[in-house]
Amino acid sequence: MKVVLENLTKIFPSRDKKAGKEVVAVNDFNFEIPDGKLIGLLGPSGCGKSTTLYMISGLQKPTSGKIFFGDDDVTELSTENRGIGLVFQNYALYPHMTVKQNILFPLQNLKGKDKLPKQEMLERAYEAARLVQIDDLMDRKPSELSGGQQQRVAIARALVKMPRVLLLDEPLSNLDARLRLQTREEIRRIQKETGITTVFVTHDQEEAMSISDMIVVMKLGVVQQIGAPQDVYDDPGNLFVAKFLGTPPINVLEGTVQDGKVYIGEDAVLNITGVEDQDVYIGIRPEGLEPAADGALVCHLNSLEVMGRDSSVVCTNEASLNPVIRAIINSDIKIDAASDVVRFDVKPHKFFLFNKETEERIRYEVN
Ligand code: ADP
Ligand code: MG
After folding, report:
1. What is the tally of structural domains in the chain?
2. pTM higher than 0.90 for the full model?
């Protein structure tokens, strides 16, 4: 089921009528979520991810704009009638019910022509439980389960009605690191097996990058960029997106374009064409810095962290906006850790320029 968001906007009135300003939680969101894909909705806390999800679910009504499931306009449809499955960060299971009763609950609530025979309800519940691998825990109470198991029950409960769209709001945030990894792989597997169009909300860029077919990066209610995770990483449209994706984060420096050269301080680090002389922000991915004896960018070497296959070169440069510059290099490349200075060449496809005022990307050609 494809999901279309058309000029979707949500404005919350100010709580304090005199002083407060209204909040534009989601601002003119347009996107066609392709059928059967998993979309990662990504951005810092408060950027409007949950509000977007709640509008898709029907829990919140848009201030303006429309939502379509397939060709059906569902904007005015109630949550119960949208055919969605919802999973929240806090599993929200009924504590006094067993796992089985929790999963059965949405089916028992079906009315009229949707009502199912008891046997079919049970079969469906067990099928959903098998999908998330908790079918041996059906008689337990939520308090007798680990966090990861509880979240699986919540997912099974969302799947049991065979939703047209699955909506997950930070479903892994309450799990410890290892369970988070395991459960996100599970979610990916289940999503692929069922083919249900899924929107997965998270503030964790690594999580979104690792399981999404496409990511949507938001900031202050405004969509910044939409694309396949690797494409967005390789080709960020602005400084915010460049900074939000990647660990360790992108190195950001101040620089200048002059006469076809990009300068960092006194160092001319790259020859380019197609850009007028101006001050710029420069983003260099940690894997975009290559140590070289005669490298153009000169940095002060702080330390060398060897971590098996890769090493992290930690250094400083006056033009850097981050406290340190990090280069991730293959550990086979030898660096003199006792030296004060380390020199780098830059890889042009890992080296981005941004307008100093708008922070939009400036495209260039290498010559
Ligand atoms: P996220 O899920 O990305 O952290 P939210 O969608 O929850 O962000 O919130 C987006 C913005 O809308 C925030 O500034 C938040 O304070 C505001 N907001 C969310 N819900 C309400 C509400 N019910 N009333 C007023 N403001 C709200
Ligand atoms: Mg949220």
Report:
1. 2
2. yes
pLDDT tens, residue by residue, 71-96: 999 999 999 899 999 998 887 899 99
**Radius of gyration of the chain measured on its C-alpha atoms:** 25
Q: At which of 217, 243, 269 does a domain end?
A: 243
State residue 61's pLDDT score: 97
48 lines ligand 1 (CB under 6 A): yes
Indicate the helix (H) or strand (E) that contains 188.
helix 177-194
Q: Is the CB of 151 under 6 A from ligand 1?
A: no
- Tell me: do 238 and 248 sit in the same domain: no
| Phi/psi of residue 251, nearest 5 degrees | -80, 130
Tell me the pairing of strands 297-307 and 38-42.
Answer: unpaired
Domain boundary among the residues 226, 243, 260 is at 243
Asked whether residue 140 falls in the same domain as residue 283, the answer is no
Q: What is d(CA 118, CA 104) in angstroms, rounded to the nearest whole number?
A: 10
Overall average pLDDT of the 299-319 stretch:
96
DSSP string, 82-128: TTEEEE-SS----TTS-HHHHHHHHHHT--GGG---HHHHHHHHHHH
- Co-location of 207 and 288 in the same domain: no
Ligand nearest to the CA of 45: 1
Name the residue of 10, 50, 57, 88 whose CB sits within 8 Å of the most ligand 1 atoms, as the mutation to test its pocket.
50
CATH of the domain at 31: 3.40.50.300
Q: What is the pLDDT of residue 200?
A: 97
250 and 285 in contact (C-beta within 8 Å)? yes
Q: Which domain holds residue 168?
A: 3-243
pLDDT band at 229 (very low <50, low <70, confident <90, very high): very high
Closest atom, ligand 1, to C-alpha of 48 = 6
- Residue 156 banded pLDDT, cuts 50, 70, 90: very high
Contact 37/213 with Cβ under 8 angstroms? yes
229 shares its domain with 255: no
For the chain, give the mean pLDDT.
95
